[in-house]
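Progress report, Aim 2. The chain analyzed during this reporting quarter is listed below.
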Amino acid sequence: MYQTIVTLKKGEGRTLKAGGMWVYDNEIASIAGSYEEGDVVSVRDFDGYEMGCGFLNTKSKITVRMLSRNRDTVVDEAFMERRVRNAWEYRKQIIDTSSCRLIFGEADFLPGLVVDKFSDVLVVESLALGIDRWKTVIVEALKRVLAEDGIHIRGVYERSDAKVRLQEGMERSKGFLGAPFDTKVEIVENGVKYIVDVEDGQKTGFFLDQKNNRAAVQRLCRGKKVLDCFTHTGSFALNAGIAGADSVLGVDASKLAVEQAVENAKLNALEDRVRFQCADVFELLPRLEAQGERFDVVILDPPAFTKSRNSVKNAVKGYREINLRGMKLLREGGFLATCSCSHFMEQELFAKTIREAAQGAGKRLRQVEFGTQAGDHPILWAAEQSYYLKFYIFQVVSGHFAD
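Predicted structure tokens for the chain:
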């Protein structure tokens, strides 16, 4: 179908053949035909077997990002609208769409693209060269499809400012796609109101992936004393407060995040029970323990401690330390909610690290719940990069708890 043909080496492409979405530079035997970076190309196995088509970028280690397994696929505006429509129809079936992730890259077969919807505003993050050419077309298609359900988008903001764009040979980009608008957007999730700063907040402004896990924490917090570590803009802390916690302390090292969290507490009339502190969690937890502080619920939602396989060992140390400290701050029979948002911190390793932390703290764990990212961040099997969030709730007890 396409004039430029990428041919794999013999024995390579195993992940692709299993359903994956990427072709790496070291898997390629040859690229035949003329092309510009970001073009759609055909992909063939070493023996000429057609494997589909995808975006080409020889400046990236991920040299081809697959779009379709059909060799006759025409990648045009109609193709992009079909992808958009499929993504929207899926989300209408599985999640509250008032604020949600509309496009989740490879898991929605639009590789390298993220689009979040916050009420009537869209935030776009483009991380790959091929899809970057199509982002305006995709955004316009999203507006049309949403309008069919009576949803009118008042503004679009681009947050393509991640460092990973540099690895694609692209510049970092940030700003309005279309007319300017107020970038402080109010949303409601699980009954909690938030002001989302789509211009200066982390990533796209708010972490929608923890929606179901925040709801799970609500069930534990009525009448409890709660500590929320790495609170960011206060999401877990506010869920604890709205559920009827007696007191909540949210902690984050970012002054801006804490200021936003305080604003969100006032928005929900929770400032009397939910307070926030700007501090380094690794320094604060030992101090709280030394002061004799104890909590009924401790929540650990750290940023990704590792973004590559090379730094996993150091990440394990960090996860082990905060979980050990968190367990020591719990009253007997209290609850620990702990998570990792790093793709490279695999579930088995994360569980092993928590187990080691419990042994170090002299505690035993009773698993209450295991969760992952919300369904608007679907996990595409064989595309392992789409699975990243691991979330546990444990009851933490000592050896003599049942005596």
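The mean pLDDT is 95. Residues 104 and 221 are 31 Å apart (CA to CA). These observations will guide the mutagenesis work planned for the next reporting period.
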